[in-house]
Amino acid sequence: MFCLTPIFAARRRIRPRLRLLSALLLPTALLCSAFSASAADVVMWNRNFDTAPVDAILALALRKTRDLYPATGVARTEPMEFDQAIQALRDNDGRMDIISAAASATLERDFLTVRFPVLGGLLGKRVCLIRRGDEARFRDVQTAFDFREKNLRICQGEHWPDTSVLRRNGLPVATSEEYRQLFSMLQNKECDCFLRGAQEILPEYEAHQQQMMIEPQLLFTYTQPGYFYVNKNNPQLAGRVELGLLRAMDDGSYQKLFTSLTQSWLDELQLSGRTVIPLNNPGLSPASRSLQSLSPLWYQP
Predict the structure, then answer these.
(1) pLDDT of 169-221, one tens digit each?
(2) For residues 71 and 38, what is the distance between their CA atoms, to the nearest angstrom?
């Protein structure tokens, strides 16, 4: 048997400014699990590769722990919608080992949660993908009230945590269970803004730029970290990812990778020059709220 106690020994060597983060992450890391001399690829949800480079963050965490665990790569699942991916993680049948998704009290209850805001919480910095030529409809919007008064509607996935956030802030939302259908809904005027995280909108724009454009003025903001979630029967993987992320923060390699992955997007989106529409995220768990005080973890435009 291989116990996760070495993770906590490694934690004690982490600089003091990260010890609070260490205390806020997994409550289960003292569990033991079987250790194998070899390891298959860690399988992650396919969409974590396609619209944001979360796979690169996971790969970094795995590299940072090769002194304790076997070397392993990151593989993608077959194409799945969000609800299918969550079910695959719950089933723990080998189709998927880990997913990165928005903070959700339900997911945090049902899975082991590595409470580290992947990509600096950019999921909560959201920009509209709109129909090409429609930008004038958004020009005078300064608040969420203005957005509603102009009869603008947001489209989102039916089961996405962000959908609840938007609705609870009084914003009109049209939904679909299928990710690809949301682009058709926008094109067919069933909605006016496909609201996307700053880390995911550019690949989607590039795939649909003949019909769509990035709205240039608005930035919807709310606290919405993206976390790694792992089945409760796999504490070894959750502990490994946690330790790898802490080590990467401590030696600066996480910040270096974050900059290399995101700088060109952030320059193009010019988030700091946009009109900010702040929203409340009433569904954040207490543990997620407590992370807000750890400013090194969060991107600030």
Answers:
(1) 999 999 999 999 999 999 999 999 999 999 999 999 999 999 999 999 999 99
(2) 8
Q: Counting beta carbons within 10 angstroms of the beta carbon of residue 149, is it exposed (0 to 12), middle (13 to 18) or buried (19 or more)?
A: exposed
Instruction: State the pTM of this model.
Output: 0.84
Nearest to 68 by CA among 234, 246, 240: 240
Instruction: Compute, in degrees rounded to 10, the torsion defined by CA atoms 60, 160, 22, 242.
Output: -30
Find the helix or strand (DSSP H, E) in which 152 lies.
Answer: none
CATH number of the domain bearing residue 66: 3.40.190.10
Q: String of b and e for 234-257 (b: at least 16 CB within 10 Å)? A: bbbbbbbbbbbbbbbbbeeebeeb
Residue owning tokens 């993908």? 129
Residue 292 lies in a domain: no
What SS3 class is residue 257?
A: helix
| Same-domain check for residues 79 and 141 | no
pLDDT (tens digit per residue) in 102-149: 999 999 999 999 999 999 999 999 999 999 999 999 999 999 999 999
